[in-house]
Amino acid sequence: MNANDLKRQAALAALAYVEEDTILGVGTGSTTNCFIDLLAEKGIRLKACVSSSKATEQRLRDHGYEVIDLNQAGTIPLYVDGADETDAKRQLIKGGGAALTREKICAAAAQQFVCIVDQSKLVPQLGKFPLPVEVIPMARSLVARELVKLGGDPVYREGVTTDNGNVILDVWHLDITDAKALEQKINNLPGVVTNGLFALRPADRVLIARPDRIDTL
Ligand SMILES: O=C[C@H](O)[C@H](O)[C@H](O)COP(=O)(O)O
């Protein structure tokens, strides 16, 4: 079973959480793309979707799903999304696809957040994957200097503009022993829109695809 098969298995497992004719929050990335395609393949009817990115919005519309604004939707019963890393406490790193801010908003608005990953994403401690930080463009250097003071090595993700018109710094070598404290600390830096730690609002369930089974955290 290759990585794509595992992503599809995780996505398939998430279908069990979807109730027809409700509003569904949908994340971003290759695992979530499998999930979107499966929703359509299985003919699952939804009242509407709330999307965490322009790319996901397009894919949902291509499959015939209605996409509405979060302001119109209110609370979302279920939000399904992938992650770049998860630990055993369901704390995540997200933002490898630069969609972290809208993803964090969707997760905050969701009654239940189900995260779907293949087994390679489960780590003993977050931080091997560089932490994405979305930054207002004029604050890029200022924020980078502050991130160095926090022990990180920020790298500007060249050529990438987020759906919100901002830039991304990928921060290597951070000590993420206390993910909640670090999430708060980085978010407090002037110029930071948000960072890719999902510790203050972790996933409610993480579905981990392995070749022979799905493990649920
Ligand atoms: O910004 C992107 C998101 O946080 C994705 O959920 C994350 O990067 C995982 O993506 P993939 O499923 O492609 O590994």
From TrEMBL:
UniProt keyword list: Isomerase
GO cellular component: cytosol
GO-annotated molecular function: ribose-5-phosphate isomerase activity
Pathway given in the UniProt record: Carbohydrate degradation; pentose phosphate pathway; D-ribose 5-phosphate from D-ribulose 5-phosphate (non-oxidative stage): step 1/1
Isomerase in keyword set: yes
Pfam family, one: Rib_5-P_isom_A
Active-site residues from the entry: 103
Enzyme class: isomerase
Catalysed reaction equations from the record: aldehydo-D-ribose 5-phosphate = D-ribulose 5-phosphate
Family: Belongs to the ribose 5-phosphate isomerase family.
Subunit composition and interactions: Homodimer.
Protein's name according to its UniProt entry: Ribose-5-phosphate isomerase A
Organism the protein comes from: Permianibacter aggregans
Species lineage: Bacteria, Pseudomonadati, Pseudomonadota, Gammaproteobacteria, Pseudomonadales
